[in-house]
Amino acid sequence: MKKSFGKWLRHQRNEKKMSQRSLASDADINWTYLSKVENSVPGFSSLSEKTLKNMAKSLKADPDEMITRAGKIPSDVQQALVDDFSLVKEIRARKKVTRRRKKKDPKGSTGGSQ
């Protein structure tokens, strides 16, 4: 089962021994909002790309991973997809290959990280 963005974010913050208030301040959001994001409260999961990048910087995390785990597509990637539709087809083809590999290896050891 996939970990929610909120749980993943809390884990990242706790690994860095950072308080919600400190991370929220770095990200320029209210700490109570961050608490609701971490607890997956409905209606409190939408963070701007700028906020997500600020969080990634503060946590020394990959901004693309932060944005993607939040369920968004980084704006430069989104623009690349708009500019070159063949990339969409490549992604779909890769997804099919990945699905086939998972069927062959039900344990899911595809070599990727979490």
From TrEMBL:
Residues 9-66 form the HTH cro/C1-type domain. Residues 1-14, 95-105 have a biased composition (Basic residues). GO terms for molecular function: DNA binding. PROSITE patterns: HTH_CROC1. Residues 1-21, 95-114 are annotated as: Disordered. This is HTH cro/C1-type domain-containing protein. The lineage of its organism: unclassified sequences, metagenomes, ecological metagenomes.
